[in-house]
Amino acid sequence: MSHRSALAALGAAGLLLLSGCGGVPTAGPAPGSDQPTAAEAVYAEIGALNGAERRDRLMQLAAEEGKKLSIYTSLNADIADIVVPQFEQATGIDVDLYRADSETVLQRTLQEASAGFAGADVVETNATQMAIIAEEGLFGTYRSEYRDKVNEQFHYDAWTPTRFNIFAPAWNTNLVGPNLVPHSWKDLADPEYDGILSLEVSDYDWYMTLYTHFRQEGMSDAEIDQLFADIVKGAKVAKGHSGQVELLSAGEFGVIAASYTYLTEKARSSGAPVDDKPLVEPVVARANGAGLLRSSQHPAAAMLFLDWMLSDGQKIILENGLTPSVMPDGSDPLGDLKVLPVDVQQLIDEGSQWSARYDEVIRGGEQLPER
Amino acid sequence: MATLAPGAPGVLARTREALVRPRTLVAIGATLVIGYLALIPLVYLLLTTFTDATGAFSLDGFARAYGDPRIGQLIGNSLWFAAGSALVSLVVGTGLAYFNVRTDVPFKALFFAASIIPLVIPGILYTISWIFLASPTIGLLNSLLEPIFGPGTFNVFTIWGMIWVEGLHLSPIAFLFMVAAFRSTDPSLEESALMSGASRVQTFRRVTLPLVRPALLSAALIMLVRSLESFEVPALLGLQNGIYVFTSRIYQVLRGYPVDFAGAGALAVGLLALAALGVWLSNRAGGGSATITGKGFRPRPIDLGRWKPVVGVGILAYFFVTVLAPLMVLLYTALLPYYRPPSAEAFASMTLDNFIKVFNLPSVPTALKNSLVLGAGSATIVMALMAVAAWVVVRSDIPGRQILDHIAFSPLVIPGLVLGVGIAFVYLRSPLPIYGTLLILLIAYCTRYLPYGMRYAVSGMQTISTELEESAHVSGAGWWPTFRRVLLPLVAPALLAGWVYIFVVSFRELSSSILLYTPGNEVLSISIWELYANARFGELAALGVLMVLVLVVLVAIAYKVGARIGLKD
Question: Is A247 left (phi over 0), alpha (psi -120 to 50) or beta?
Fold first, then answer.
């Protein structure tokens, strides 16, 4: 009796949800209709304009929209808290800022889109999540002279890079003397790093990018596998890049295989004995970017923000230790560096295989030999 | 099937009569609210688990989740870790509760507050403090002991280290359960045992422990499930030496694209089955140990006599190692620009900058206010609902009442992100303007903490003998007066313990908060996450220290107030 009533209750509740909500949750966001939205008409109109004419028209339209803007981002609080007030001051637009990790920004955007809820006007987050939202057809087309200045290796159809995350090895200068500083990725396989090297558990995009690079250099898969096995041997696996840098400063680790340069720089500037210069090249770079939502209720304000972010905003990004996508003088911030861009399309198509493979590889790093 | 068939007029009439009784109405009301709260994420979880992208029935999620060749090893590690942590916290929590309630140890209010300190320290901070204390490379305890035992006495990066840290971090749950239980048991039974010649240890083992069995089982069950789901400790301590657990797997399937909700759901369904078994066993074994009877009693603290100094020193040592040492590390970290081992230079570089920065964080005042509102709100709502629900489960003869217990327990095993997405899914489509307000966070918190409220209330109710209600009945009191004036005061210690627990842990809820909050509705856990994500450990440690201070003051006040209105002793 009790089991039957439980099943009946569950079934009834399930039916209620289904009939009331008209779809199974895994069905994902309903593909938007092909009809251009009101926001897209604005994007098309303004996309053809430049300079003062463009800005004046955007300001006029933004005023008609009520001078409001909603941004979803994974930009650090320290920097977002500078960026947003300055934008508000420059334009008089009132910004609502939702901040979370990139996976949550993605989930929220997809959930709201599937319910037809217009939450965000602009989404700004990591490349992978941006590409997924783009693939769901949620972004409108953004054209501007600022976008054209971004490094060509990082041009994506529906979104535009606003900053770069750069992976490079970082080390504790008390534990790693000048003779032990790594100069290439392959150096990390040296047995001298056994016991002091740390890898991050979810860096499969870094792994995929380097692996593909070594292949292009003519190494066989067996050779590359051996190289990574040697890197992983004696390595300590950690979770979270920021925690890794904290433990590097404290001396728990001697070297981090792939640290975000901005986190290393932040620790260094607070006086911690850490460094990553000269950077090991080619650096692995992954874009973070912004896109304009097709469902936006404030398309002009959204466009104004992206224009501003790619011009004046870049200076704030640079001043706060991040890597901008365009230098304030219009030049390419990656110009002098050898760069391996993380291939976003490859990440979407093959990500789960690389993730599974990387998990296998780092498991080789378990159990430090007793010292 | 017979009961479902119409055409039995006698049954119908009796049913109608039963339905309009106030106790039935209240029971139905509470059941509906609990069912509504708990079933939304549960149904969402089951639907996503058993369907594929097109909405057709599918078991692929299970194949993906359990198809990993190492799943056996993962489950083995998980169970070993969970059982160990549950045992550590049970022993520690029970011991502390016993001394606090039953003996005349000094400084009881402080002792009480200190026992629940690990609860308020965010898991990430607590775990990192332990790395600073017991890492073989940089651990402070290891440096202290090196002259005597050589390098690397302790190694926190082992399964034992994980069990130790998790067990201590969970011990306040057991402590709160057992405090309530010890307050509700009649010490005269123990006194009789002692007078009949049993030793103190024998009495504790053969009289005291069986008396508090329902609370013990409830605490064990919750802690077992909690450690199976624990994330920070396995991630920060286990990975380093390749100790992978069940949750690493849930995290892994939730991070891919498209997010594998079916795979994560399949893993959660596994936990659900385990939890259902646990609830069933706990209710079976927990009944029949009612100790609060019509005979009045006054718990009198045992005079420890010549053992008093020994117990006192033991408790001080415990607090030094498990509470004070991690707190000192936090304070030390908070005073430095970045963490480094103690040295003259390190002490010279100390400033209060991190504390000043925390006070200047723009979102913290709003976040603190929202967290207080949500914590107090969800704790009050959940415990009020559970007072009735526990009566339904333990006392009433309503058919299928055990189902309520199982449903209320289910949110415990649903991953926070899935719970958040399930709630967002429903309220994004609801005509009520709840999405994007503080109310949706309140709903999420109430859902999340139903299981704890249920276990606290049920274990409290199981210790109360029916004879008191029967006497009230015989004296002419109806159900409501009996419930309000007899049952509620008796079960109050358990309800208060549950309230304190929910209030405190709600400050840490992150995974569904971060999905559901809107600008202006930030909560404290989001500020903590931001500091962590931005590698601002000094400020994070400072915030942790401040949270502990606030908690100690709040709990000490609650304890005093509780004493005055007779909830204590």
Answer: alpha
ipTM rounded to 2 decimals: 0.82
Helix, strand, or coil (residue B379): helix
Distance (Å, whole) CA A136 – CA A246: 37
* CB A139 within 8 Å of CB A303: no
Contact assignment for B337 to A271 by CB distance below 8 Å = yes
Beta strands A197-200 and A339-341 are unpaired
Per residue in B278-289, pLDDT (tens digit) is 878 877 776 555
Domain with CATH 3.40.190.10 in chain A: 36-164+286-342, 165-285+348-363
Residues 369-408 of chain B with CB under 8 A from chain A are 399-400, 402-403, 406-407
Average pLDDT over residues B90-98: 90
Contact B138 A250 (CB under 8 A): yes
Q: Do B515 and A2 touch (CB under 8 A)?
A: no
CB atoms near residue B351 (< 10 Å) = 11
How far is it, in rounded angstroms, from Cα A70 to Cα A73? 10
CB contact under 8 A, B44 and A270: no
Answer CATH for A36-164+286-342 from 3.40.50.1950, 3.40.190.10, 3.40.50.2000, 2.40.70.10: 3.40.190.10
Domains and CATH numbers, chain B: 24-564 (1.10.3720.10)
Per-residue burial over B427-464, b = 16 or more CB atoms within 10 Å of its CB, e = otherwise: bbbeeeebbbbbebbbbbbbbbbbbbbbbbbbbbbbbb
Nearest to B447 by CA among B497, B502, B523: B502
B80 touches chain A (CB under 8 A): no
| A302 contacts A68 by C-beta, under 8 angstroms | no
Chain B positions in Cβ-Cβ contact with residue A237 (cut-off 8 Å) = 239-240, 242
Which DSSP string do the residues of B170-208 spell out, in sequence order? HHHHHHHHHHHHHHHS-HHHHHHHHHTT--HHHHIIIII
> For the structural domain made of A165-285+348-363, what CATH number should be given?
3.40.190.10
Entry pTM? 0.84
Cα B235–chain centre separation: 20
- CA B219 to each of CA B222, B260, B446, B495: distance values in angstroms, whole numbers, following the listed order: 5, 32, 20, 14
For residue B489, CA distances in Å to A228, B292, B460, B495, B496 come to 64, 12, 11, 10, 11
Helix, strand, coil content of chain B in percent (nearest 5): 75, 0, 25
Q: What gap in Å lies between CA A26 and CA B421, rounded to an integer?
A: 11
What are φ and ψ of residue A2, in 5° steps?
-65, -40
B279 part of contact set with chain A, CB < 8 Å: no
Calculate what percentage of chain B has a pLDDT beyond 70. Answer: 91
Dihedral sign computed on CA atoms, order A94, A100, A103, A107: negative
Residues of chain A with pLDDT under 70: 1-34, 365-371
Contact A284, A206 (CB under 8 A): yes
